[in-house]
């Protein structure tokens, strides 16, 4: 079944069952090219399982996944990455004992298809430095280039993760709770970075912070108990009775963009 013309990613009746428990229950989702698409829902709604299906950490029980018109349902994780689908995780994933610049340079080596020549003279990798500095500039980290990643504040580490993700030249970025554990100032900074780096790219993100979702997402899909109960722009979804009911008891401000 081909994709609709404006979609880069589409799932058709995707199901994942674990010994009788259905974590993802017939999810049909369409992500349009060039948009920021947020996937929200209460804890246990199936959001991370859905991401794991997209990146092939899990195989679906049934259903299909299409990317750029191709059925990728049975492809391996490495094949998915080569297609330009790159994922970040809830836990910040950087090399703590490498510098900020070196972290980006490692990602650039992968994107160029070269080996990880950790044992070679550093000068042999300097041709990657200009691009690395450019990427750090995109996320406001150029002045931190020589800093060891372990010494970065948490919000800056997430910015570094964005830079390493960009180094892989993704066409579709999957961001798993990119602002989790951040203070208000860092949340605002990273949200704006996501908006900034989404230019000419497509972003699908799982995010609990409704102030982030309401400010940067073009489209929102709401999962509850493994099913999509609403989809559309924030102004429409936030007024959906099913969505309001799904969030009852979590936070009265959550659907008003209160974070």
3D architecture notes:
The chain has helices at residues 47-54, 77-82, 100-111, 129-138, 154-167, 184-197, 210-216, 234-237, 241-247, and strands at 7-18, 21-32, 36-40, 62-67, 70-71, 85-88, 172-176, 202-206, 219-224, 227-232. With 259 residues, it is of the alpha/beta class. Helix 6 (184-197) links the parallel strand 7 and strand 8 (202-206). The protein is 32% helix and 24% strand. The longest helix is centred in the middle third of the chain and has 14 residues, at 154-167. The N and C termini lie far apart (38 Å). The strands form two sheets. A six-stranded mixed sheet has the order 6-7-8-3-9-10, with helices on both faces. It folds into two domains: 1-84 and 170-259, Rossmann fold (3-Layer(aba) Sandwich), CATH 3.40.50; 94-169, no CATH class.
As for the number of domains, it is 2
Q: Determine Rg (CA atoms, Å).
A: 19 Å
Separation, N- and C-terminal Cα atoms: 38 Å
Average pLDDT number: 85
Tally of separate helices = 9
| Level-1 CATH class name of the largest domain | Alpha Beta
Briefly note the structural class of the backbone.
alpha/beta
Residue share in helix? 25-40%
Overall 3D geometry?
Answer: globular
Descriptive key words:
alpha/beta; 2 domains; six-stranded mixed beta sheet; four-stranded antiparallel beta sheet; 9 helices; globular
């Amino acid at each position: 079944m081909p994709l609709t013309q404006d979609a880069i990613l589409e799932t058709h009746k995707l199901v994942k069952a674990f010994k009788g428990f259905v974590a993802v229950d017939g999810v049909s989702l369409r992500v349009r090219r060039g948009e920021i698409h947020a996937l929200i829902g209460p804890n246990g709604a199936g959001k991370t399982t859905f991401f794991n299906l997209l990146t092939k950490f899990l195989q679906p029980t049934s259903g299909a996944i299409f990317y750029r018109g191709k059925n990728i349902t049975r492809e391996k994780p490495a094949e998915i990455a080569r297609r330009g689908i790159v994922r970040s995780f809830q836990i910040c994933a950087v090399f703590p004992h490498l510098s900020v610049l070196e972290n980006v340079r490692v990602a650039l080596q992968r994107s160029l298809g070269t080996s990880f020549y950790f044992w070679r003279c550093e000068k042999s990798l300097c041709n990657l430095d200009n691009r690395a500095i450019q990427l750090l500039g995109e996320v406001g980290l150029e002045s931190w280039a020589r800093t060891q990643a372990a010494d970065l504040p948490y919000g800056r580490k997430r910015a570094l993760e964005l830079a390493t993700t960009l180094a892989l030249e993704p066409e579709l970025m999957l961001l798993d709770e990119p602002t989790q554990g951040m203070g208000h100032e860092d949340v605002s900074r990273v949200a704006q970075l996501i908006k900034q780096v989404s230019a000419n790219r497509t972003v699908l993100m799982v995010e609990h912070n409704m102030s982030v979702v309401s400010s940067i997402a073009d489209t929102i899909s709401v999962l509850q108990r493994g099913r999509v109960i609403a989809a559309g722009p924030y102004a429409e979804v936030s007024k959906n009775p099913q969505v309001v009911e799904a969030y009852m008891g979590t936070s009265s401000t959550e659907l008003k963009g209160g974070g």
